[in-house]
Predict the 3D structure of the following.
Amino acid sequence: DRAKAVWESGEINPALEILDRGIQEHPHALTLQKLRADILTTSRGPREAVEAYELVLAKAPAALDVRWAKWSVLTRSGQGEESIAELGRIARIDGQNPLVHLRLAQELRKHNRLEESLESYRKAVELAPDVLGWRLALARARFDVLDYDGAERDVLYVLHNISSGSPLELPARNLLAQV
């Protein structure tokens, strides 16, 4: 708590020193190591922060908060492939979380990995079938891999289930016109 308070007051190096002493005294205290990585994320380069998160993950590979923090650093620092790999690990641990699959689909799409992106959109929509914006994104993903029948089905589903004047209406109609 003391290290966090020092960090939040803007004193980064003293906070890291407090944490380093605490980690030496309590090498199995993963919360101290994660806090150290969080501080490095805000104060140093992404490489140091990722390395610090990896130290925590070596001891607690299923720590989702640490995996998400590492993913965030990778994404912000433009490490797209590493970011995608980390999202894949998160999806294996937290496979019932539709947001994981949505983020993975979006990242894969950014890197033009369209078939893989489609699979992740499918999983997201399967887990959250009533989120019409995601279903419209699934339709677009289907369209991109030339699955026009599937794209049309998803667009029609969206159009049938949105309220009049929904912000999804225009993009859905535009996609339908392309199918």
The chain has a mean pLDDT of 92. The chain is about 80% helix and 0% strand.
